[in-house]
Design goal:
Length: about 350
């Protein structure tokens, strides 16, 4: 399977490493508007075909899928060009700037019958998968309460300076993953309430968000995120879990310790592996990049819909929109209204 990558910035380096690890995949073309970044990645990953204009790259074709690793402002345009060119698409989160764009992007891929997956990778982290497997096995019964928590003081702005500039920050950038984990664990939500704060005076958006979701199955989950939490040990980029079920409880604590209590108690170390090209503490995220990209390839090969497809991601994106509405208006927002 031949692929092209658009966007050769900070995070794309992980995606390029992961593509190199996947059997049967070759990245044959790269695109970035910034020629310096384009050439640096082209040389590092041995890709000869290089473009500063995505439309030209699609005109010349010769690949089966495109990996869109640019920031959100370009996603709709690039997904629509890719769909027109008739290739499968994997697109970074946040999928779109608003629901109308996201729905149009899903329609564009559906019209041409191509796979569209969102690079929504946090639920694919192996510690989260371990927790999901326990929940799916029924060991703790039916979950009725959950907390999915991401609290850190890690400096994400040095690698991703644009995160300090937008009017929106933590819900759109990071909370989106944590909300998606909540969906994966407890199912779709019917309503959400939220509060937001900005603690760091040097950024424009909110860096603290506390959200409460009601799920279709009656479960309640708290999803809390912060980039203003100075604590030791620093847990970036771990998502911590507490789940109460009708037969027992599950905790995913700092240091990747998974505890399941029913009649007895089991504790497991679910630390993610350190891939040869990964660096701590990012290795947790980096491993999930390989897993999600392998899932994309497996789905194309078997004709299955990816778990984190564009259509599925509309529901995660709707939670993001609803959370901002709820925080702004100080009310509970029904997902049916988004
Ligand atoms: P970045 O700014 O470092 O890189 C983006 C690159 O895309 C830049 O080099 C830019 O020149 C290029 N670009 C933008 N528009 C383009 C266009 N139309 N055509 C060609 N090139 C274009 O950004 P980043 O930090 O790498 O983030 C990229 C995306 O990845 C963001 O949406 C971010 O939210 C996401 N991200 C995801 C994770 C994750 O775990 N899933 C982690 C970090 C970042
Ligand atoms: O952009 C974000 C993401 O998706 O994961 C962590 C991150 O890099 C900073 O919040």
């Amino acid at each position: 399977m031949k692929g092209a990558v658009i966007g050769c910035g900070f995070f794309a380096q992980n995606q390029l490493e992961a593509w190199r690890d996947i059997d049967g995949v070759e990245i044959v073309a790269l695109c970035d508007q910034d020629a310096e970044r384009l050439n640096a990645s082209g040389s590092a990953f041995g890709v000869e075909r290089r473009y500063t204009d995505a439309a030209k790259m699609f005109d010349e074709g010769g690949f089966d899928f495109v990996d869109i690793a640019t920031t959100v402002g370009s996603h709709r345009t690039l997904v629509e060009i890719a769909a027109k060119a008739g290739v499968h698409i994997i697109c970074q989160k946040p999928f779109a700037e608003n629901m109308a764009d996201a729905r149009a992007m899903v329609d564009a891929a559906q019209t041409v019958g191509k796979t569209l997956m969102v690079h929504e990778n946090f639920r694919w982290q192996s510690p989260i998968q371990a927790a999901l497997n326990v929940v799916k096995s029924g060991t703790i019964g039916k979950p009725f309460f959950g907390r999915v928590s991401f609290r850190s003081g890690y400096d994400v702005f040095s690698g991703q300076p644009y995160l300090a500039e937008g009017k929106r920050f933590i819900i759109e950038d990071l909370g989106i993953h944590i909300l998606d984990i909540s969906r994966a664990l407890f199912g779709d939500a019917t309503q959400i309430a939220a509060t937001t704060r900005r603690i760091n005076p040097n950024i424009n958006g909110e860096d603290v968000a506390t959200m409460m979701l009601t799920h279709e199955n009656g479960a309640t989950s708290f999803v809390d995120c912060s980039y203003a939490t100075q604590r030791s040990p620093e847990t970036f980029p771990q998502s911590l879990l507490e789940i109460d079920g009708t037969l027992g409880t599950l905790r995913l604590d700092a240091g990747y310790r998974l505890t399941v209590q029913t009649e007895g108690e089991t504790q497991t170390d679910v630390s993610p592996p350190l891939l040869p090209w990964a660096q701590k503490p990012w290795h947790n995220i980096q491993e999930s990049v390989l897993t999600i990209q392998q899932h994309f390839v497996d789905c194309i090969n078997s004709g299955r819909q990816p778990e984190t497809s564009g259509a599925d991601n509309l529901k995660t994106l709707a939670l993001v929109e609803a959370a901002y509405m709820a925080a702004e208006q100080g009310c509970t927002v029904s997902l049916a209204d988004v």
